[in-house]
Amino acid sequence: MKDEVSLSLIRSFRSKDLSNFELDRFLRSVVFSPSGKARSVKDVSELLYLSTRTFNRRLSEAGISYSNICNAVKKEKAIHLLSSTNTPIGEISRQLGYTESANFSKAFKRWTGSSPKEFARTARA
Length: 125
What we know:
By secondary structure, the protein is mostly helical. The protein folds into two domains: 2-64, no CATH class; 69-124, Homeodomain-like (Arc Repressor Mutant, subunit A, Orthogonal Bundle). The chain contains eight helices and no strands. Helix 3 (41-47) crosses helix 4 and helix 5 crosses helix 8. The longest helix is centred in the middle third of the chain and has 19 residues, at 66-84. The termini are far apart. The relative contact order is 0.11.
């Protein structure tokens, strides 16, 4: 897992040399593993060779929330899948790391104001 992040990026993060934009862009790129599984804070901190506590402290210092970035990436991916594919909602839910479709539906409604089913129907019309 660690070899998928460049050594220079790891050094930049560890020495706090990344701008908030670069940090946000980096985090968005590693939220999901190559297999499509959502990564936890622990997974990403290990990817950077940092303790979870240090990783969270660096994010806090930058005013960035890993949870907010994860949700933003999940929202973007859900919108893309619902509007451009015929992938079933249950499968999209699973791809985004939800164990229950109901939890995904609640999150999607919170993000967009409509259910995944309504959104897909409108987007594909």
